[in-house]
């Protein structure tokens, strides 16, 4: 009986994490209540505190999970390029700077979807550390696309490329519905990949 109960508890926690990871990216950290998160997970509001001490603790775990999803996608895309740095960069940039990604923040990049909300959280909140750790991993992935021997040069270029990607997607979402949105995605894609990219 205890084993079945533990398995169900693990399934419930997984459902909460999955729902919160998506909903926080879609609506922001303060754009969704605990009751809404639990309902989306198919659970009652009362069961929340059996899994998480607070909404802050859940936000940190949801952020971590969202970055894990993003980083898993990036690892697959990098591996497909088989060490060709230009192909690696294209495999990251092409699916990132798209109308589909712009329209679906709930299943997209955590760095862009959560940036503004995390920036507004106080420095001591656990979600900030989860965000920093996740972003560092993405920067490390991006560094693999940089053709430079010097580690500092590779890191700096990776930061620039990440800032271009995340900034372009964030601004494209903010201007969706105006031609400026598509222009933003296209201009940054061209800047990163070249006119034939």
From TrEMBL:
GO terms for molecular function: DNA binding. Residues 64-91 form a coiled coil. The lineage of its organism: Bacteria, Pseudomonadati, Pseudomonadota, Betaproteobacteria, Burkholderiales. SUPFAM superfamilies: Homeodomain-like, Tetracyclin repressor-like, C-terminal domain. Residues 10-70 form the HTH tetR-type domain. Gene3D superfamilies: Homeodomain-like, Tetracycline Repressor, domain 2. PROSITE patterns: HTH_TETR_1, HTH_TETR_2. This is TetR family transcriptional regulator. Keywords: Coiled coil, DNA-binding, Repressor, Transcription, Transcription regulation. Pfam families: TetR_N (PF00440). It comes from the Bacteria. InterPro entries: DNA-bd_HTH_TetR-type_CS, Homeodomain-like_sf, HTH_TetR, Tet_transcr_reg_TetR-rel_C_sf. Residues 33-52 bind DNA. Signal peptide: none annotated.
